[in-house]
Amino acid sequence: MVPRLFGVVRTYPDTLDTVTLALEPLDGPPLAFRAGQFTMLHAFGVGEVPISISGDPTRPDPLLHTVRDVGAVTHALVTAAPGTAVGVRGPFGSGWEVADGTGGDVVVVAGGIGLAPLRPAILEVVSRRSDYGRVVLLYGARSPADILFADDMATWAQRHGIVVEVTVDYGPPGWSGRVGLVTTLVARAGFDPLHSLALVCGPEVMMRYAATALSARGVPDTRIRLSMERNMRCGIGLCGHCQLRELFLCVDGPVLSYDRLAPLLDVREL
Ligand SMILES: Cc1cc2nc3c(=O)[nH]c(=O)nc-3n(C[C@H](O)[C@H](O)[C@H](O)COP(=O)(O)OP(=O)(O)OC[C@H]3O[C@@H](n4cnc5c(N)ncnc54)[C@H](O)[C@@H]3O)c2cc1C
Ligand code: FES
After folding, report:
1. Positions of E strands within the chain
2. What local confidence, expressed as pLDDT, does residue 133 receive?
3. Hey, which of 40, 51, 73 would you mutate to test ligand 1's pocket, going by the most ligand atoms within 8 Å of its Cβ?
4. Class of 4-92 per CATH?
5. In the chain, at which end, N or C, are there fewer CB atoms within 10 A of the end residue's CB?
6. CATH class, range 98-227
7. Rounded distance, CA 196 to CA 186, Å?
């Protein structure tokens, strides 16, 4: 439960409300983590929140987190200047375990800030690109100004042969890209459903539709993985804040397969 001390070494503004923080440990070795895991980030004097790690698992130093400013704690984090000390507990939870997709295709479906928890999985795929077949990233953002990691996506497409499809909810004049829901891209994306691993992260309603569309294409439910969000306090299975029926999402999740989640996602307000 005791946080380690990290210092903010750099901040990268991603969009108007989202910032990536690069943290270095002030008290020991870098924090090893698996793609998909999160930490509890503590802004001293304000509070502590769960945030996924958005950096490269093969290069854990500096430790990257991409944070969207939605309330008191996330605001303190996105406005932390270099030199600020923050507390870090973790890493916690289950990972994407993308190596399970070795030899097959990988389909990534992301909505909004959901691309941040998926970035480590994509970087892992890129680092062992020849282990995988077709790799498809379907990404939906609210507007062109909300698109995260545009440079990364260009590199993944140009250098690593990843098929990247981006769509926005609202396209202003001058936007020549796609407009519409990311879930509609699943039906005609080029991948072999029976031999694919699908990774999904975004708002819960988007994940529900994406998982339904992937399942309808023929991806086995055991091969569709979703990263779930709930309020979290302890991160270690003690407080019960993150409970989803029989699951404690901080230890059983956040990444879970659709065969386990489908019965729970169908229940309203659970
Ligand atoms: C496993 C996990 C990983 C996460 N990864 C990221 C990440 O990589 N980047 C990021 O920006 N955010 C991430 N979040 C969400 C982040 O934890 C919340 O935005 C944060 O707790 C809000 O705290 P606050 O004090 O800033 O705002 P609050 O004042 O607590 O809340 C502001 C708004 O956000 C909503 N909210 C609060 N907590 C959550 C939550 N856990 N999930 C969804 N909505 C919430 C509230 O209902 C309210 O509408 C993650 C959450 C979980 C559980
Ligand atoms: S956050 Fe306390 S049990 Fe999961």
Report:
1. 4-15, 18-25, 38-43, 47-52, 63-68, 85-92, 105-111, 135-141, 163-168, 178-179, 196-201, 224-227, 243-244, 247-248, 255-257
2. 97
3. 51
4. mainly beta
5. N
6. alpha beta
7. 13
Lookup: tokens for 209: 């539709």
For 207, counting Cβ atoms within 10 Å of its Cβ (0-12 exposed, 13-18 middle, 19+ buried), the class is buried
| For the chain, percent of residues with pLDDT exceeding 90 | 91
Q: What is the pLDDT of residues 192-206, one digit of tens each?
A: 999 999 999 999 999
Q: What is the pLDDT of residue 85?
A: 97
Q: Is 246 exposed, middle or buried (0-12, 13-18, 19+ CB in 10 A)?
A: exposed
Token output for 62: 């500096």
- The residue to mutate among 14, 20, 63, 70, having the most atoms of ligand 1 within 8 angstroms of its beta carbon, is 70
User: Where are the domains positioned within the chain?
Assistant: 4-92, 98-227
- Closest ligand to C-alpha of residue 256 is 1
User: What average pLDDT does the segment 250-257 reach?
Assistant: 96
Q: Give 22 Cα–ligand 2 centroid separation in angstroms.
A: 26
Residue 124 phi, psi (nearest 5):
-65, -45
